[in-house]
Amino acid sequence: MENNNKPENTKPGPAQEDSGCSNGDSSSKRTQGDFSDPVYKEISLANGTINRMNKDELRAKCAELKLDTRGVKDVLNKRLKNYYKKQKLKQSAAAGGPGDTYYDYICVVDFEATCEENNPSDFLHEIIEFPMVLIDTHSLEIVDSFQEYVKPELNPQLSDFCIQLTGITQEMVNEAESFPRVIRRVVAWLQEKELGTKYKYALLTDGSWDMSKFLYTQCRISQLRFPQFAKKWINIRKSYGNYYKVARGQTKLNCMLTNLGMEYEGRPHCGLDDSRNIARIAIRMLKDGCQLRVNEHLHGGELQSVPISAPLEGAPPPQRPKTRN
Ligand code: AMP
Ligand code: MG
Fold first, then answer.
1. How far apart, in whole angstroms, are the C-alpha atoms of residue 171 and residue 169?
2. CA 98 to CA 312: how far, in whole Å?
3. pLDDT at 89
4. What is the Å distance from ligand 1's center to 4 Cα?
5. Ligand 1 mutation pick, 108, 111, 212, 269, max ligand atoms within 8 A of CB
6. More exposed terminus of the chain, fewer Cβ within 10 Å: N or C?
7. Could you tell me the end-to-end alpha-carbon distance of the chain, in angstroms, rounded to an integer?
């Protein structure tokens, strides 16, 4: 059940100084000067008490407050702190302010691509599965999903390694359509949900590669311009590491699940199952008070960080990518 072999970013990664993730309560809407409010003293005292609790005490407190009791000590610590912070801010008359409205939906994407064992560095990965899982950030539930396989053009024959890894068979891709046709249906699906028009949304991926490598390479192969709506996304590994204060090596999919006290459901490296499990982590993080926000973008083909101070904008309305001349 190993699912941690996705190639790591080899591109120089964006700086880690921004968390891409902040507490999802009204405190983030305040200006710095407002932190003199006595409510912050109360929050700080509560945090001190929580920091002195051992794992059993944290778990017992979570149970008493009817919070999820799963996860490692750091996760329980963060969950409790967030609970008290929210409670105290709610009670405080000073809490609030208009601020940025949050995304209505988060759309998780996890591509599967052609590959070989120990992919040569110049290997051109082609997308063979395009899955999406839609999270309603108000109900904190998965509300819909999309999945299509894609016929690769440069290397139409899948390697045995790729078939074993992803569970995608030669017949599945033979019967599938090429990427330009599939992306049209992806766009139509997103439009049908009124994302980017009626509803504010953001894309979310596990790592930087889905957009900066797989989609970027595929668009060049298919002679399409990179779609505007996919230029910014939430990299959940980065958000997770910053929120729960864990090292980068502990933010692989299985690691995140384990530390949250959850198990992988489905088949690892099936794009749709991977997306569902990433969505489960995102929902858990939102429930724990993390305001997942866009933290990476592509600029002129280069992967860059989005600073935490950037306004919380939703992705633009999805449109069919134009062909490159
Ligand atoms: P994942 O989302 O982890 O399933 O990985 C996405 C894609 O990365 C896969 O479809 C493969 O193309 C590639 N990949 C993942 N793990 C490996 C591996 N161990 N060796 C070669 N390619 C891999
Ligand atoms: Mg995957």
1. 5
2. 13
3. 74
4. 9
5. 269
6. C
7. 44
Closest by Cα among 310, 287, 111 to 203: 111
> What local confidence, expressed as pLDDT, does residue 10 receive?
35
Q: Tell me the per-residue pLDDT of 56-68, one tens digit each, with 9 for 90 and over.
A: 999 998 998 989 9
Strand partners, 23: 290
Q: Computed over its alpha carbons, how large is the radius of gyration of the chain? A: 21
Q: How many Cβ atoms are within 10 Å of 160's Cβ, its own excluded?
A: 10
Show the ligand 1 pocket: residues with CB < 6 angstroms. Answer: 5-7, 110, 112-113, 115, 119, 125, 165-166, 269, 274
pTM for the whole structure:
0.80
Cα 116 to averaged position of ligand 2 atoms, centre (Å): 15
In sequence order, the 6+-apart residues with CB closer than 8 A to the CB of 182 are: 130, 148, 150, 176
pLDDT of residue 55: 93
Report percent pLDDT > 90 for the chain: 76
Which atom of ligand 1 lies at the shortest distance from residue 4's CA? 3
By alpha-carbon position, which residue is closest to atom 14 of ligand 1?
6
User: Measured between alpha carbons, how far is 137 from 292 in angstroms, rounded to an integer?
Assistant: 10
Q: What's the farthest any 2 CA atoms get from each other in the chain?
A: 65
User: What DSSP element (H or E) covers 74?
Assistant: helix 73-91
Nearest ligand to the CA of 168 is 1
Per-residue confidence band for 12, with pLDDT thresholds at 50, 70 and 90: very low
In terms of Cβ atoms closer than 10 Å to its own Cβ (0-12, 13-18, 19+), residue 56 is exposed
